[in-house]
Design a protein that fits this description.
Distance between the termini: 39 Å
Shape: globular
Pfam family, one: DDE_Tnp_IS240
CATH superfamily of the largest domain: Ribonuclease H-like superfamily/Ribonuclease H
Strand order of the largest sheet: 3-2-1-4-5
CATH topology of the largest domain: Nucleotidyltransferase, domain 5
Helix content: 40-55%
GO molecular function, one term: DNA binding
Keywords: DNA recombination, DNA-binding, Transposition
Number of helices: 8
Number of strands: 5
CATH architecture of the largest domain: 2-Layer Sandwich
Radius of gyration: 20 Å
Largest sheet: 5 strands, mixed
CATH class of the largest domain: Alpha Beta
Protein name: Transposase
Oligomer: single chain
Strand content: 5-15%
Organism: Parafrankia colletiae
Number of domains: 2
């Protein structure tokens, strides 16, 4: 008797079991990451469209699906450029100042984001993470913080290190957009929320600027919505 070949298992969508369809969930996540809105603002916008969603539910959607969308987009991402601009800023979480490290390349692509309560350890961990994105930079520009020369000598001895503060204007201007996104998030309680929203903001910014092979033939104003629609099918 001929034996039937077993079919490969069908992986369930991460959206399975949710009350609302993926389109509504991703719409709420996109609005929150793209614009300087609070969770209650997104709740109100959805209510105007006849969708009754509590702001706590929207928070849970952002925390759950932002990393999944970023991971689904990873294979479509362009390689970082050879010139990196790195700095750290500060965000208050549960009344404690938290370090937020970011790097962008010369094309404006955000390479990586890392939130941490420990400065020196976080700086090293940040560079280790950033180097997994596919290219070792030939030049790294930082501010004059003393932690950078030691870490760069260890991890990127071949790279030219520029530590003049005035040379880092590129990332400082870029950082202002992230600060605008974080400003409505008053009373931050969890480090995870800062990390998730900062990484999600970077994903949205990179897609809008064409740093992913997603929605490449779409009107730039509609690129983000089209790209997240593509990613939704892969989550």
């Amino acid at each position: 008797m001929r034996r039937r070949r077993a079919c490969p298992p069908v992986l369930a969508s991460e959206f399975a079991g949710f009350r609302f369809p993926p389109e509504v969930i991703v719409l709420a996540v996109r609005w929150y990451l793209r614009f300087a809105l609070s969770y209650r603002d997104v709740e109100e916008l959805l209510a105007e469209r006849g969708l009754d969603v509590d702001h706590v539910t929207i928070y849970r959607w952002v925390q759950r699906f932002t990393p999944l969308l970023a991971e689904a987009a990873r294979p479509c991402r362009h390689r970082p450029g050879e010139r990196w601009f790195v700095d750290e800023t500060y965000v208050k979480v549960s009344s404690l100042w938290t370090y937020l490290y970011r790097a962008v390349d010369q094309h404006g692509q955000v390479i990586d984001v890392l939130a941490s309560t420990r400065r020196d350890q976080a700086a090293r961990r940040f560079f280790v993470r950033a180097l997994t994105h596919g290219r070792r930079p030939a030049e790294v520009t930082t501010d004059t913080a003393p932690v950078y020369p030691r870490i760069l000598d260890e991890l990127l001895p071949e790279a030219c290190h520029v530590d003049a503060a005035r040379e880092n204007n590129r990332i400082e201007a870029n950082r202002g957009r992230l600060k605008a996104r974080l400003r409505p998030m008053r009373g931050l309680k969890r480090l995870r929320s800062v990390q998730t929203v900062s990484a999600g903001h970077a994903l949205v910014q990179n897609i809008r600027r064409g740093h992913y092979e997603l929605a490449v033939n779409t009107n730039p104003q509609l690129r983000l919505a089209a790209a997240l629609t593509e990613l939704t099918a892969a989550v």
